[in-house]
Amino acid sequence: MALNLRQKQTECIIRMLNLNQPVNPSGTANEEVYKILIYDKFCQNILSPLIHVKDLRKHGVTLYFLIDKDRKPVHDVPAVYFVQPNNPNIQKIVADASRSLYDSFHLNFSSSIPRPLLEDLASGTLNSDSIHRISKVHDQYLEFVTLEDNLFSLSQKSTYVQLNDPSAGDKEIEDIIERVVNGLFCVLATLAVVPIIRCPRGGPAEMVASALDQKLRDHLLSKNNLFSEGGGFVSSFQRPILCIFDRNFELSAGIQHDFRYRPLVHDILGLKLNRLSVPGEKGGMKSFELDSSDPFWMANGSLEFPEVAVEIETQLNKYKKDVDEVNKRTDGTAGAEFDGTDLIGNTKHLMNAVNSLPELTERKQVIDKHTNIATVLLGEIKERSLDAYVKKENDMMVRGGIDRNELMSVLKGKGTKIDKLRFAIMYIISSETINPSEAEAVEAALRESEVDTSAFQYVKKIKSLNVSLASANSASRSNIVDWAEKLYGQSISAVTAGMKNLLSGDRQLALTRTVEALMEGKPNPEIDSYLVFDPRAPKSSSGTSSSHLKGPFKEAIVFMIGGGNYVEYGSLQDLAQHQQPAKQVIYGTTEILTGMEFVEQLSLLGQKMGLGSSAAAAASATH
């Protein structure tokens, strides 16, 4: 049983668009009803990668609006609302109903609506004498964004900063954990699976795993629960494993430069919700969509950039050859651009040629799209020497350091301020010991390039805490641990563990290697201390390592708290495909971040701790 999150979420949305009526095999409702769709910004992002305008039309949606927009009444037409369950949205719905904007209101909330909000909705519509307009209220459990079959995001911004903020109180941390748990619960409810949950001890990963285990247990007590179709207790080989990690488990993966196509497109061109814009030839911007409908993107996303360039050339030559073939068969001119005007003469081949025209046109559009994208990428790579950054960062991680002259030449060479900052942080992470004079020289070079050093100093602080933990005596050690755990959850050991993990020759991510071990389920010192939760098992046995919960597993859901990226996603997909037989790994995260976006969060934490050049500038300005 493959877990197809994209398909399952799309089916839920289609059912919702059809007023939650069953749909027939063709994917449409048995009775055609024209309707209006109202959504908020968050739910627009859920719909955007899955449903296009033509799909809305197919399901009878004639108009669609953001809930915040001023809207005119449309009588005799039902409205489908798809919004988050929060107070502003409830107030908007009550106002819309009281103004009789639509004939009937079908309310769909992206996650379970809390009772107080439901009561506000009831009292608001009662008081305005419009409760009869509310046809149905549904909890849809769709509060996540699916970008590919095996990739999702909870779209929860700045989780890393919020969880690592030294001034965050217990209540704030609990609220963040609860939001993450609710998002993961929605994913599992959509898939209708109750997984075995594994996580490292301590920090946000354990907090989320434990709270999710409890939420699933509570839900499974109700008779008509969302997982009842999944049946009773089945063997671990048929149930997926959910592996939960915190970004501090492997900080480097969020910062490093990468030369593979998918991570490069995301990092350099800012791929968002499967869309990006690049400068056009005649000025202006060109927008492109990169999703499962693009065969080139799906087939070549994990290739290194030079291989992608070769593949584009290969596809173009094949296209030209196929066009020449069609032209020959129809007595057209070889080498001419194929536009259908030369289809004369040989009627025997005419129908074949006509039939191949749409497919050829489509192939040409895909080739043109990726030629455009690759051209822009190549310009950025040359201008910023990105290939050199990738190579030197890899070398640093493998060798555990870098020659000082080489280090300084990169920091004084090509690249944006953020490129240099990321490289400097990778130097800190990869160095087994930090030479103080070398670190000072790095900071001086960053300041010379007018780079804010807050993020660099923040990571250096974590690193020095690690070193001092190793050398401090037990009395002072406990104080450092208290402060460090408050600040970084389980990251104190994990950051350094991540650094050590990456010093292997094959450069497999620590995350990927750990997931592989968890899926295999064999005894392994790296994961033997990991916690195990089985929400279907009696409470007393959870948290221990019962043998039947150890796997092996065919399917895994890997979730990264505090921001994920296409580097980890690609690495996990490679792992899944190279297994014999092939396995499935779904990768999810609180939000998908570029290297620049993640470093900005590190900078913010550095500033909150009074570190870095911007903090120093602010301090001097106040004196």
Automatic annotation (TrEMBL):
UniProt cross-references to Gene3D superfamilies, sorted A to Z: 1.25.40.60, 3.40.50.1910, 3.40.50.2060, Syntaxin Binding Protein 1, Chain A, domain 2
GO terms of biological process kind: vesicle-mediated transport
Domain of life, per lineage: Eukaryota
InterPro entries, per the entry: Sec-1-like_dom1, Sec-1-like_dom3a, Sec1-like, Sec1-like_dom2, Sec1-like_sf
PANTHER family noted in UniProt: VESICLE PROTEIN SORTING-ASSOCIATED (PTHR11679)
Family named by the database record: Belongs to the STXBP/unc-18/SEC1 family.
Name of the protein in question: SEC1 family transport protein SLY1
Organism of this sequence: Gossypium darwinii (Darwin's cotton)
